[in-house]
Design goal:
Oligomer: single chain
Shape: globular
Structural class: alpha/beta
Number of domains: 1
Largest sheet: 7 strands, mixed
Order of helices and strands: HEEHHHHEHEEEHEH
């Protein structure tokens, strides 16, 4: 299984060979299609902004679908790009897995594991078919990036498999990986508390599967620095 260090090396090779695509804004990007690796480090390039990570996780837990609630002051540029003029988005991940509207998916996955620790059905689906008609409503540009996350208990550990449609290596991976780790830890804690059999599990690996893993031209210098 590839690790984060292997992904770094792959991006450096692609940069050296000038294997670029050009996005809709005209910016060069380096893409890896069908990337699959262990998310064994919190960042691929750059460093984690823990203050922002904490703010985003608090926002997810609050289940607000307005980016103006993320923090005091101006929301991050990426969220502004995704939102409509009022700040509304789809991709509050807490809302997608905790809310009744989206079928209490965290609770369902937890109950599934408590009833059958060997299950392959402890799956939380973040996106939905309707996103095709909803992603641009009211001026949004928010086609949910995470497809699904599934949890497995094997050999006394709970592992997560994160499946993503699209993932920016620099900002997206760091924040999404932090959320995945936060939810994995929460799932482990609740499972250990609820499990009627009394079996205790530990948090295991996070497997990262991305249809399109990419780095933008403005961050090419970070690929060189690493």
């Amino acid at each position: 299984m590839q690790q984060v260090k292997d992904i770094r090396a792959r991006f450096l090779r692609e940069l050296d060979q000038e294997n670029f695509t050009v996005d809709k804004t005209g910016m060069k990007t380096i893409e890896i299609l069908g990337a699959s690796f262990l998310a064994d480090e919190p960042a691929i390039f750059g460093t984690v902004n823990q203050e922002y990570v904490d703010q985003e996780i608090d926002w997810y837990n609050g289940q607000s679908t307005n980016i103006n609630d993320i923090r005091d002051g101006e929301p991050p540029a990426a969220w502004q790009y995704a939102a409509d003029r009022h700040g509304n988005i789809h991709s509050n991940y807490g809302y997608l897995i905790f809310s009744k509207r989206y079928h209490n998916q965290f609770k369902n996955a937890l109950n599934e594991l408590c009833q059958n620790p060997d299950s392959r059905r402890a799956n939380m689906i973040y996106t939905r078919p309707e996103i095709w008609t909803e992603f641009d409503e009211g001026g949004k540009s928010d086609f949910i990036c995470t497809n699904a996350v599934c949890y497995y208990i094997r050999d006394g550990k709970m592992h997560a498999v994160v499946q993503m449609r699209s993932n920016d290596v620099v900002f997206g991976y760091k924040n999404d990986r932090a959320w995945a780790k936060y939810i994995l830890d929460a799932m482990v804690s609740d499972y250990n508390w609820m499990n009627p059999k009394g079996d205790i599990v530990e948090a295991g690996d996070i497997h990262w599967q991305v249809q399109n893993l990419h780095v933008y031209e403005r961050h090419f210098h970070l690929v060189r620095e690493n």
